[in-house]
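Budget justification aside, the reviewers requested a transparent look at the raw inputs and outputs of the sequence design task funded under Objective 1. We therefore reproduce one unedited record. The lines immediately below are the structure tokens for a 59-residue chain.
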């Protein structure tokens, strides 16, 4: 959904605000469910990338 559409729904009718909020939450849930789970192999120096070369440079 476009941000402009969501904004227009909220402004046009106060009762539409709850519907727009629910649609936005559903969109975030769909997006978050599509993400790959992170894998932590060492807790001591966790960095935010699975890139082996960068991990070697950091540790």
């Amino acid at each position: 959904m476009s941000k402009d559409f969501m904004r227009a729904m909220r402004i046009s009718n106060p009762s539409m605000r709850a519907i727009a909020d629910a649609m936005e939450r559903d969109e975030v849930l769909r997006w978050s469910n599509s993400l790959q789970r992170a894998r932590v192999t060492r807790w001591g120096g966790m960095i935010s990338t699975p890139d082996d070369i960068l991990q070697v440079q950091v540790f």
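The two ends are 42 Å apart (CA to CA). Residues 3-33 form one domain. Computational costs for records of this kind are itemized in the attached budget.
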